[in-house]
Amino acid sequence: MNSARNPILIGRLLSPFVRRVAVTLAYFGIAFERRILSAVDHISEVERTNPIGRVPALILPDGETLIDSAAILDYLDGLAGADRALVPATGPSRRRALYLLALSCGAIERAMLANAERRRPQALQMPERLERLLRQTRQGFEALDRELAGRDWYIADHVMQPDITTAVGVTFVRHIFPGLIDHNVVPRLDAVTARCEALPAFRSMQID
Length: 208
Ligand SMILES: N[C@@H](CCC(=O)N[C@@H](CS)C(=O)NCC(=O)O)C(=O)O
Hints:
Blueprint lengths: L7 E3 L5 H13 L4 E3 L7 H7 L7 E3 L5 E3 L1 H12 L10 H28 L8 H20 L14 H16 L10 H11 L2 H4 L5
Parallel strand pairs: 1-2
Antiparallel strand pairs: 1-3, 3-4
Helix pairs in contact: 1-3, 1-6, 4-5, 4-6, 5-7, 6-7
């Protein structure tokens, strides 16, 4: 049960899925509290909130718990209302937003799998799998760079959820695999990431 008046976000901002929720809460100006738990170091505490042991989770003031960043963001868009929602409700722009989010979340997941792969004990390492996961991470972000051709933001003339998730993903991947995404190959991705990271909502939610 949540005895606080504000929602509580579970997870560290090192997790890009947690960070995209935190940035979105800040962007909408929704006050929230944090429980900075790692899904790796605080397994039983995280499992008490989410039986499958993953972050983020968002505990609402009435005790209802939301899990999975996509479901949490959908809830936040509902709170914000149709005019401010960061994923369009219908039509071609919604289709494009979902495509871009599948690419960005997929590329982030590839990087997370690669990170787990490289941490296996030497005898269990699978170099070909690691190489494939890193290649797919890179290809995902290169595709996201191409999607920005001729535009500053992905689906509107201002920041929307594909911009937030992509920027959070680029910052995360550069944090864990410096050099994987070559600056010379993705100038538009670098520009949108810099534009996002300069926003107050991003600046207030740095990796921790
Ligand atoms: N689809 C989920 C993915 C969440 C996820 O993979 N979270 C990671 C941290 S970035 C986690 O909890 N990993 C711990 C584990 O899988 O054991 C979401 O969007 O919330």
